[in-house]
């Protein structure tokens, strides 16, 4: 499935590149047809995915963390609805249900897909926040144990001290820099979370473009879809890279 998705978005990216460089219309048509066939094949292979997503939602209901429970359950429910709409689209494109309004069902499917991705990114943000708080507390304990002060604190008498004119802006810049460094450290130390953030962020461009909320163009959509697909394949090859639960 991941390879088919990667091939489909590679065709989308290739078609955009051929169009920009003035390739022959016949070659562009062949690439578009190949992309369409790959899309239809993926829809056929996803016929049972709605049931799988519902089962995943049932399992997520029992998570102890209320925020994770909400984000993961709602994400799986939206994925189930997305796959259901995708099945209707497959029936319309394959000729089994020729009267299906494909544009309307495509918009519905991308809407559910967008909601699912928003929930995924919310879950990622929550996990990043928890890890940053844990790392910050660990750093504070190490500093206290070694007798060091807290960077940017008023007790050091440095920038941002209460008596320093205009010290608020440098102190804010220092805090922002420390937060960025802490974020980078957390993501570097948790590759599954990093891959999940990048993959969901890349996927987000697809429904945003299809729904007309943010027109990115076929080149950006193809590139983001290809990157996301490669990352998904990596999580299949190396299961430890898959974010759990």
TrEMBL record:
Cellular component, GO, one term: peroxisomal membrane
A GO BP entry: peroxisome fission
Subcellular location: Peroxisome membrane
Keywords: Membrane, Peroxisome, Peroxisome biogenesis, Transmembrane, Transmembrane helix
Coiled-coil spans in chain: none
TM region(s), chain numbering: 220-241
Biased composition (Gly residues): 145-162
Keyword Membrane: yes
Region (Disordered) location: 143-162
Tagged with keyword Transmembrane: yes
Superkingdom of origin: Eukaryota
Protein name: Peroxisomal biosis factor 11 beta
Organism in which the protein naturally occurs: Gorilla gorilla gorilla
Organism phylogeny: Eukaryota, Metazoa, Chordata, Craniata, Vertebrata
């Amino acid at each position: 499935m991941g390879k088919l998705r990667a091939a489909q978005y590679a065709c989308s990216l290739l078609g955009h590149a051929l169009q920009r460089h003035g390739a022959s219309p016949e070659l562009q048509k062949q690439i578009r047809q190949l992309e369409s066939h790959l899309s239809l094949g993926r829809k056929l292979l996803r016929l049972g995915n709605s049931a799988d997503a519902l089962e995943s939602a049932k399992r997520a209901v029992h998570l102890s963390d209320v925020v994770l429970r909400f984000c993961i359950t709602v994400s799986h429910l939206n994925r189930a609805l997305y796959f259901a709409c995708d099945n209707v689209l497959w029936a319309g494109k394959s000729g089994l249900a020729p009267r299906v309004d494909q544009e309307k069902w495509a918009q519905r499917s991308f809407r559910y897909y967008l909601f699912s991705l928003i929930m995924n990114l919310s879950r990622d943000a929550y996990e990043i926040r928890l890890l940053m708080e844990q790392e910050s507390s660990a750093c504070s304990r190490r500093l206290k144990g070694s007798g060091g002060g807290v960077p940017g604190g008023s007790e050091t008498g440095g920038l941002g001290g209460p008596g320093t004119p205009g010290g608020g802006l440098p102190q804010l810049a220092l805090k922002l820099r420390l937060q960025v460094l802490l974020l980078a450290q957390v993501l570097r130390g948790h590759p599954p979370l990093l891959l999940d953030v990048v993959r969901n962020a890349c996927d987000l461009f697809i429904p945003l473009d299809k729904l007309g909320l943010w027109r990115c163009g076929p080149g950006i959509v193809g590139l983001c879809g290809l990157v996301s697909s490669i990352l998904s394949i990596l999580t299949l090859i190396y299961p430890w890279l898959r974010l759990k639960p």
